[in-house]
């Protein structure tokens, strides 16, 4: 296989990177990078020229924007496919459509597609009660996460909405990860990370709830009550609200000395219950 035949790989779950084999093909010009990142986030979807212009020129597009965009498209096509000739009508992956473009990527060419597939699979495995398989899918998905998405394009402000959506998907995956760990009685392994998440995302009640469960599983009920007090403080000081019904109920169960795992991850709650109170 010649270098030219190797498939391009697009990565958005970290800094934006495009590689072909060992070779980096990411354009250095900021607008060209942003254009490709935008198309990659919407891989295999039609993206209107109007929308691209609006998004790339955040402070209002000059009259020359459309012509400039055509220039960027030609430049990135060459960067992606060495030897590509602009007099040809078609490009192997960046296709022109009436009033827009489509970047055609196979699932294995984009980390985001694989990440979403794995996250969806994990969710489905949890739903049918196979937490061991869910755990594998979650680990594989987390292996694709290299850090803050599109970290090098963050300053442009172009991707604020996309970045926050990706971060939500990541937090959702973490939530499933801790559910699965708790389901397997591994709460003691989750305490430190959950404490950090509760600090970073003080308004996410599910992380507080999972931290309380993890502490109970680690035979640290008193600390679980302290964690609740902290959640209470955080919620009231940051958002002026009280803990929601789930968190309050969890607090009551721990206070009363009942088994909190009845309220945790449902389908294997019984299995974990039988391992308490010694837990682990
Ligand atoms: Zn489970």
Automatic annotation (TrEMBL):
One of its GO terms (biological process) is regulation of DNA-templated transcription. Residues 1-105 form the OmpR/PhoB-type domain. The keyword DNA-binding applies. The keyword DNA-binding applies. Residues 1-105 bind DNA. This is AfsR/SARP family transcriptional regulator. Keywords: DNA-binding, Transcription, Transcription regulation. Belongs to the AfsR/DnrI/RedD regulatory family. GO terms for molecular function: DNA binding. It comes from Lentzea alba. SMART domains: BTAD, Trans_reg_C. PROSITE patterns: OMPR_PHOB. Transmembrane segments: none annotated.
């Amino acid at each position: 296989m010649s270098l030219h035949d190797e498939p391009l790989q697009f990565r958005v779950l970290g800094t934006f990177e495009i590689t072909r084999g060992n070779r980096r093909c990411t354009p250095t010009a900021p607008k060209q990078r942003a254009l490709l990142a935008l198309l990659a986030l919407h891989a295999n979807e039609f993206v209107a020229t109007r929308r691209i212009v609006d998004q790339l020129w955040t402070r209002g597009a000059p009259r020359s924007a459309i012509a400039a965009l055509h220039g960027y498209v030609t430049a990135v096509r060459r960067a992606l496919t060495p030897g590509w000739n602009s007099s040809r009508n078609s490009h192997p992956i960046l296709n022109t459509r009436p009033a827009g473009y489509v970047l055609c990527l196979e699932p294995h060419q984009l980390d985001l597609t694989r990440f979403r597939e794995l996250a969806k699979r994990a969710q489905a495995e949890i739903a049918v009660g196979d937490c061991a398989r869910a755990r594998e899918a979650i680990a594989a998905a987390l292996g694709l996460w290299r850090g803050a998405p599109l970290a090098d394009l963050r300053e442009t402000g172009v991707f604020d909405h996309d970045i926050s959506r990706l971060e939500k998907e990541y937090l959702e995956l973490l939530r499933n990860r801790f559910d699965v760990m708790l389901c397997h009685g591994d709460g003691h392994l989750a305490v430190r990370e959950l404490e950090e998440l509760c600090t970073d995302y003080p308004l996410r009640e599910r992380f507080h709830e999972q931290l309380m469960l993890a502490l109970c599983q680690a035979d640290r009920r008193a600390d679980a009550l302290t964690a609740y007090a902290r959640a209470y403080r955080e919620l009231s000081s940051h958002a002026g609200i009280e803990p929601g019904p789930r968190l309050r109920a969890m607090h009551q169960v721990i206070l009363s000395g009942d088994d909190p795992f009845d309220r945790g991850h449902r389908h294997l709650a019984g299995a974990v219950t039988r391992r308490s109170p010694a837990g682990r």
